[in-house]
């Protein structure tokens, strides 16, 4: 079994990614770190706990992470603990403040914070661990700054974030990297083996409403919740970022499914990728060196420019009903 740590800003697509990881008999989820992102840290942490309790997987530890980015000043509507409410932010439709599951009664985050836990776990582990951060990269970046040697015990970092030809929060930037550009840059330059699953890939791996119906027929708790979240996302995307009739990306799930079958991502190339931290119009933008203009920079990641939609939907449907 491949040991993994998830780092999430749960969120409907984070929730589906968590379920894919937990349901797979080939992955062992050592722990889940939470971070500010889709919502403030109180929301993303409770959403993660309520999902684990719903699935009956309370034994998986949750570590509450950073409530703010390392440096960036987020606009008021992006600051933690301010629910969006009303129609101020259309992505409200995609996630909601709380996941549509019963509030957690027993499952609570551990006493240790996410950054300290990363450092402890990656210092003490006898076996290398794969990290799958699918929210802003704040927790991992701070851990790497505090104790750079932990990189030696990282098997691979599979990141949902960044984009070559897309922007989903500004015209230039993908949301996770825009939330904390400095953190993204620190992680990109840390020297670990890195695979990037960006918007270019996740926007190829779309799921339809009728495919959500098929997922629901799988009958497990994970299937039922995932189908519901996909349908919510379809309604939300139709309002805020139309991607095709009755379709939605499920970004974070693609990063987890990549661990089960690398063929789910396509057009994957070794690349040097930088992050704009200039705090201007292109803040958080991925600078993807497709034409090898940085002669002095070796590739720092494998970047997936596309994905195989059929494989993605098949794998998603299979893994959610696996156990
Ligand atoms: O840009 C997509 C990413 O932003 C996903 O991880 C989504 O959950 C949000 O965090
Ligand atoms: Ca996410």
Attribute tags:
single chain, alpha/beta, Inosine-uridine Nucleoside N-ribohydrolase, Chain A, 8-stranded mixed beta sheet, two-stranded antiparallel ribbon, 12 helices, binds alpha-D-ribofuranose, binds calcium ion
- Given helix and strand content, the structural type is alpha/beta
Bound molecules: alpha-D-ribofuranose, calcium ion
Structural domain tally: 1
- Give unreliable regions as ranges: 79-91
Specify the CATH class.
Answer: Alpha Beta
Strand tally is 12
Radius of gyration: 18 Å
At the fold tier of CATH, the topology name is Inosine-uridine Nucleoside N-ribohydrolase, Chain A
The CATH H-level superfamily is: Ribonucleoside hydrolase-like
Q: In which order are the strands of the major sheet placed?
A: 3-2-1-4-5-6-12-9
Q: Please state the average pLDDT score.
A: 93
What is the general shape? globular
What is the helical fraction, as a range of percent? 25-40%
- Multimerization state: single chain
For the termini, the CA-CA separation is 15 Å
What CATH architecture do you see?
A: Alpha-Beta Complex
Task: Tell me the series of helices and strands, N- to C-terminal.
Answer: EHEHEHHEHEHHEHEHHEHEEEEH
Describe this structure in words.
The protein is α/β, with parallel strands linked by helices. It has a single domain, classed as Ribonucleoside hydrolase-like (Inosine-uridine Nucleoside N-ribohydrolase, Chain A). 37% of the residues lie in helices and 18% in strands. It has 12 helices and 12 strands. The chain has helices at residues 12-23, 41-55, 92-95, 114-124, 138-146, 175-179, 181-188, 199-202, 209-217, 221-240, 251-260, 309-320; strands spanning 2-8, 27-34, 62-63, 129-133, 154-160, 194-197, 206-208, 247-249, 265-271, 273-275, 286-288, 301-307. The strands form 3 sheets. The chain has an 8-stranded mixed beta sheet. It has a two-stranded antiparallel ribbon with strand order 7-8. The longest helix is centred in the last third of the chain and has 20 residues, at 221-240. Bound molecules: alpha-D-ribofuranose (RIB) and calcium ion (CA). Calcium ion binds at residues 9, 11, 13-14, 37-38, 134-135, 252.
């Amino acid at each position: 079994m491949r040991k993994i740590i998830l780092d999430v800003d749960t969120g409907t697509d984070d929730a589906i990614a968590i379920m894919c990881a937990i349901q797979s008999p080939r992955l062992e989820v050592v722990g889940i770190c939470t971070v500010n992102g889709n919502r403030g840290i109180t929301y993303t942490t409770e959403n993660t706990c309520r999902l684990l309790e719903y699935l009956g997987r309370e034994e998986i530890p949750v570590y509450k992470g950073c409530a703010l980015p390392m440096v960036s000043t987020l606009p008021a509507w992006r600051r933690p603990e301010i629910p969006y409410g009303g129609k101020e932010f259309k992505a409200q439709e995609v996630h909601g403040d709380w996941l549509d599951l019963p509030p957690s009664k027993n499952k609570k985050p551990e006493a240790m914070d996410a950054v300290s836990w990363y450092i402890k776990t990656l210092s003490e582990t006898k076996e290398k661990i794969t990290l799958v951060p699918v929210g802003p990269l704040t927790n991992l970046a701070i851990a790497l700054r505090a104790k750079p040697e932990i990189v030696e015990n990282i098997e691979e970092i599979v990141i949902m974030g960044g984009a070559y030809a897309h922007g989903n929060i500004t015209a230039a930037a993908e949301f996770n990297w825009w939330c904390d550009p400095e953190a993204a840059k620190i992680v990109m330059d840390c020297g670990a083996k890195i695979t990037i699953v960006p918007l270019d890939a996740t926007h190829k791996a779309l799921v339809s409403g009728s495919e959500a119906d098929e997922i629901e027929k799988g009958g497990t708790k994970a299937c039922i919740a995932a189908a519901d979240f996909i349908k919510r996302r379809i309604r939300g995307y139709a309002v805020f970022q139309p991607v095709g009739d009755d379709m939605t990306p499920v970004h974070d799930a693609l990063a987890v499914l990549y661990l089960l079958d690398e063929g789910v991502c396509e057009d994957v190339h070794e690349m040097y990728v930088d992050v704009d931290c200039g705090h201007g119009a292109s803040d958080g933008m991925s600078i993807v060196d497709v034409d090898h203009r940085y002669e002095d920079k070796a590739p720092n990641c494998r970047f997936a420019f596309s994905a195989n939609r059929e494989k993605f939907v098949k794998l998603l449907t299979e893994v959610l009903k696996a156990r």
